[in-house]
Queue: 2 jobs
Job 1
Amino acid sequence: MSALTVAAVKSEAERVESLRSYKILDTLLDPAFDDIAWMAARFCEAPIAMISLIDTDRIWFKAKVGTDADSVPRAGSFCELTMQNKALTVICDAASDPRFAAHPLVPDTARFDAGAPLLMPDGHVIGTLCVLDRQPRDLSDPQRLALQALARQVVSLLTYRQQSVRDPLTGLFNRR
C-alpha cells in the first residue's frame, strides 16, 4: 500500500471517528434539525432538502423534507463530492454530468443538487446540508449564502450538543 493510500485510509478513519463522536447517527427525529432542513428547502425553493451524515458505506438523513428515504448508499453520491470538495458544490444538471448520469436517482429524483459541507471544528466533513430538485437549475447568490449559513448552524448545533454532554477538559460524559 502506498504512503498516499495509507494517509487516505487514516484520514477517512479519523473522519468517521469524528462523525461518531457526535453520537447522532440513527437517532430520533429532532425538531431543531427538521427546522433547518425545512428552511433550506424554502430559501432554495427546492422540493427536497436533507441533513445528511456520511458514514462508512451509507448516507443517513438526520432531517429531511420531500423524501421518505432514511438513507442511501454512499458510493458515487452527490454528498461524497461535496465532502471531497469541502465547499459548496452545485450540480446544475446531473443527467448531463458524466460523474452522475448513470446514478440511480437521476433523472427521476435528482437532476439538481446543491450541498454545503458540515465542516466540523476538527476540520473533518461529517455530512452535508443539501437541496435537490427534479428539474435542472441553479441557485442564486443569496440562496448559496443561505445554504452555507444554515450548514454552519447545523455544525453549531452539533458542536453545542456535544459540548453540553462532555467535560471539555477530560472528554468524559458530564453527570448531567
Note: The longest helix spans residues 141-165.
Job 2
Amino acid sequence: MAAANSDMRLVVAGAGGRMGRALVHAMAATRGVRLAGAVEALDSAVIGRDAGELAGLGRNGVEVVSDVAPLLKQADGLIEFTLPAVTPALAELTAAAGIVHVIGTTGHSAEEEAVIAKAANRARIVKSGNMSLGVNLLAALVKRAARTLGDDYDVEILEMHHNKKIDAPSGTALMLGRAAAAGRGIDLDRYAVRGRDGMTGPRRAGDIGFAALRGGTVVGEHSVIFAGPAERIELTHRAEDRMIFARGALRAALWARGKKPGLYSMADVLGLADI
C-alpha cells in the first residue's frame, strides 16, 4: 500500500455505469486521489474502452477490464456502485487485501449483508444507502424528529428515481426509515409497510410507510413526512446531479484510509453518528 501522504489509488467497480463514470470524472478534479483501475462485468460492452473517454474527460490511459483482483494488489481502495450480488465477492477481495472498500450499491439481502460484515474484520468498509452530505444530514434530522415527535405523528417516506433503477424502496429510503425507527427505539423490519393496495384497513399506529415512484431521468428525491394531529412536517432532499454521490464516496474513501478495519457509514465519515 502507498504511504499515507501520497495520492490514494482507487479502483472503480461499475466504471461503465452512471455512477462509475461520475466517479471517474470526480476523481480527476479531487486532490489526493488517483484512478488506479476501472472494472466492469465480463460481458459489458465497455470492456477495453478508456475510462476517461467514457467519463467525458478524454483518454486517461486507464482501460476498463473485467478482472479486479490484480488491480487491488496495487490499490489503496475500491469504490463500487454495482449490483447487490456482486458486492460480497468484492468485499472478500478487499478483505484479503486489507484495503478500503466504499459500497454505494444498495438492495443487499441479509445473507449478503452478513458477508460484508464479516469482511469488515479485515477491510475498512464504508457502506451507505446514499453518499451525499445532504441526505446523511437529512437522516440525522429524521432520527431527531422521530424521537421528539413520538408516536402521535405517522411517518411516511416517499421516494422517486429514474426508470432504470432496479430496487425499491431505494437504499436511501430504507436508510431514512432506519433513522426514524432508531429515533423511536423500534425495529424497522417489524413496522415497515412497503406498499398498500385494496382494503388495507386503518393505518396501524407506529408503522413507517414507504412509497416508491419510478420515471424519467430523476436522479433521486426523498421526502419523510411526519403527519400529526392538525399539522404535517416534511423533510425533503432532491438530488440534481450524481456528482454529489461521487464526491461523497471519495470523501468516504479518504476518511477510511487511516482507520482500523471495520464497518462504517457515512454518518461516521461526517461525524453525524451521535446526533
Note: The longest strand covers residues 220-228.
